[in-house]
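anyone seen this seq b4? input:
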Amino acid sequence: MILPKDKYLDLKGLVGYSSLKEPTLRNHIRFEGLPCFKVKGKILIKRSEFDRWIEGFRMNKKEQLDEFVDQVIADLKE
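predicted toks r here
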């Protein structure tokens, strides 16, 4: 039995679920390793896999936030 969390979403469904725009999602599929399936030209993404993948972008840890701020400041100084 497939749990509701493991529902497959097409790009339109994932746009609504994630609040990201379709071109952004396509870029993440092509260049950032967003896991997906392609069935007869249709892209499908398992919701649970998207949830795990997006966790890699979490920035609520103080250390990560400090590193991010330091990098932005260094980039601005260049």
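Residues 4-77 form a domain with the Arc Repressor Mutant, subunit A fold (CATH 1.10.10). The mean pLDDT is 87. kinda curious what u guys think
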